[in-house]
């Protein structure tokens, strides 16, 4: 069904399905293996110990790649639309792409460097991934409004902006409460010190992560009317 979508809509659709599966599969395996408590672990907690760590690392790296491809196509789409409408500066579109690719790099760092093995590098990667992601979807929401009504409906713009606002609001307590945690561990129980900080921060992390997924879901309709063509030219000497 995904491959039968018109244009290049299958790319954000695949990104949404793949990323959701990465989170859910890793969570289920980690809970069944007894590595984390079922009640709202950190996303990274569900991919720290084998066997889920290998699945998590592979799938999140693939998600980062798909996200990068989606962002680049989105950049090309806006550039193409901008040729006739001139609704946004090309530099702003490029800046948004660069911020988005930074977020993808952060995702790869999170997937590659495990939370308990190299916590400082892992935390930096997570901060870059979530911080850049929030900025990216906010910029894309603003660009969407500027492209109305020719290229987007106001209803879709409102949805994107709502997702961006919720993600921004959740991002702040996610960082604040995570910074209050005095230990690095994955098997939390309610009786432990700092559990409240962990719980609130984890809830916010899942909120931001699925905010990104739902935001990319809104790209599908835009991508349906856009196709990529590769042209080759042969020059004779």
What does the secondary structure layout of this molecule look like, with pairings?
Layout: H1 10-32, H2 52-85, H3 90-112, H4 119-146, H5 154-179, H6 195-217, H7 219-224
What would you say this structure looks like, in words?
InterPro entries: CWH43_N, DRAM/TMEM150_Autophagy_Mod. It comes from Galbula dea. It is a multi-pass membrane protein. With 237 residues, this protein is mostly helical. Helices cover 69% and strands 0% of the residues. The model is unreliable at 231-237 (pLDDT under 50). It is built from seven helices and no strands. It has helices at residues 10-32, 52-85, 90-112, 119-146, 154-179, 195-217, 219-224. The chain has one domain (9-223). It starts with 9 loop residues before the first helix and ends in a 13-residue tail after the last helix. The relative contact order is 0.14. The protein is elongated.
What is the chains' assembly state? Answer: single chain
Strand content: under 5%
Number of domains: 1
Query: What's the total helix number?
Result: 7
Shape: elongated
The low-confidence parts are 231-237
Mean pLDDT: 90
- Provide the structure class: mainly alpha
The sequence of SSEs as H and E is HHHHHHH
Q: What is the straight-line distance between the termini?
A: 46 Å
What share of the residues lie within helices?
Answer: 55-70%
- The tally of strands reads 0
Question: Which radius of gyration do the C-alpha atoms yield?
Answer: 19 Å
Biggest sheet features: none
InterPro entries: CWH43_N, DRAM/TMEM150_Autophagy_Mod
Domain CWH43-like N-terminal: 9-225
Family: Belongs to the DRAM/TMEM150 family.
Pfam family, one: Frag1
